[in-house]
Amino acid sequence: MLKGVASEKELNLIRRSFEVVGDVVLIEIPDEVMHYKDKIVEAILKRHKHVKTILRKIGEVSGEFRVAKYEILYGDRTETIVKEHGCRFLVDPTKVYYSVKLSGERERIAKLVGKEERVLVMFAGVGPYPIIIAKHAKPKEVVAVELNPIAVEYLKKNVEMNKVDVKVFEGDVRDVVPKLEGEFDRILMPAPHSAENFVYLLPEKVKSGSFVHYYTFESENKEGELPLKVKKLFADYGMLVEVKKVRKCGSFAPYVNRYVIDLEIQ
Q1: 212 — phi, psi (to 5°)?
Q2: Angle 135-64-22 from CA coordinates, rounded to 5°
Q3: How confident is the model at residue 138, as a pLDDT?
Q4: How much is the pLDDT for 65?
Q5: Does domain 101-265 have CATH number 2.40.50.140?
Q6: What's the distance, CA 237 to chain centroid?
Q7: Backbone angles phi, psi at 154, to 5 degrees
Q8: Three-state secondary-structure class, residue 103
Q9: Intervals of the chain under pLDDT 50
Q10: How far, in whole angstroms, is CA 236 from its chain's centroid?
Q11: Tens digits of residue pLDDT in 207-253
């Protein structure tokens, strides 16, 4: 729609991809091409007729609750319902973190969970990991911990809406996890920006044969170093681990990716 209107230089600045969360679109538009925003909105609405709101990202994911900043370009309602793997999630991208891009990873983890497993999801957000696991894997118990009080409210609503059994704890994992009774068969740490700071919480919560899904950011040229790096990190806290899988699950910045390392406690 912008060919012949915008210059080649301007066309190169316009993002060719965006995220659709329910009926809300999240898009980045550089300041240099903001004068084309109406045309961009028109193009999105023409292609995605169900969209009710378009948000422009104006600030990166940051802060204690890891939420990005947005401004409204079209529409007025930022809350939406996302459908994923037979589950529904009420979410507001302006208040809580949620990424459709991790949908495949959430399905992968759910398929790994055994029926009698006790599962802990740290940094649970609005509940996509614990709810999908509870819905499809039918484990013995799923425990979810989240710090952001707004995300916790959405998490509770989503648990109820999906009719699953998930135990929700509001608070900092540093305070909540040590108080949880017993050990877990599987622990998820889906906070790639800071998961390494919380590994010290695990020794009392895992046993031989437990699995940990550890998420982190790393540059592409250091991907090969990840297994040794993570093994050393866990060894520093007295845990011998076997790296079962290293998987790229999304990009974070140019040449920097999000990775998940599947670990088995030895």
Answers
A1: -125, 130
A2: 40
A3: 84
A4: 75
A5: no
A6: 26
A7: -65, -40
A8: helix
A9: none
A10: 27
A11: 999 999 999 999 999 999 999 999 999 999 999 999 999 999 988 88
The per-residue pLDDT for 36 is: 94
Q: Provide the pLDDT for residue 16.
A: 83
Per-residue pLDDT, 224 = 95
Beta strands in 97-221 (DSSP E): 118-121, 141-146, 167-170, 186-189, 211-219
| Residue 71 structure tokens | 């401004």
- DSSP designation for 140: S
Residue 224: count other Cβ atoms within 10 Å of its Cβ. 11
Q: Is the dihedral of CA 157, 161, 166, 167 positive or negative?
A: positive
From its phi and psi, is residue 80 left (phi > 0), alpha (psi between -120 and 50) or beta?
A: beta
The whole-angstrom separation of Cα 101 and Cα 59 is 19
**Domain edges within the chain:** 8-78, 101-265
Are 53 and 74 in contact by the 8 Å Cβ rule? The answer is yes
Please report how many Cα atoms fall inside a 13 Å half-sphere around the Cα of residue 126, on the Cβ side.
Answer: 27
Q: Which tokens sit at 70?
A: 């947005």
Separation CA 183–CA 209 (nearest Å): 11
In which residue are the tokens 């250091």 written? 222
| Residue 260 identity (one-letter amino acid) | V
**Domain at 8-78: CATH code:** 3.30.300.110
Asked if residues 100 and 127 have their Cβ atoms less than 8 Å apart, the reply is: no
Run of H or E residues at 159 = helix 149-161
Cβ atoms of 179 and 157 within 8 Å: the answer is: no
Nearby residues of 191 by Cβ (< 8 Å), 6 or more positions away: 66, 122, 123, 198, 215
Cα–Cα dist 24/52, whole Å: 6
Look at residue 24 in the predicted model and tell me its pLDDT: 97
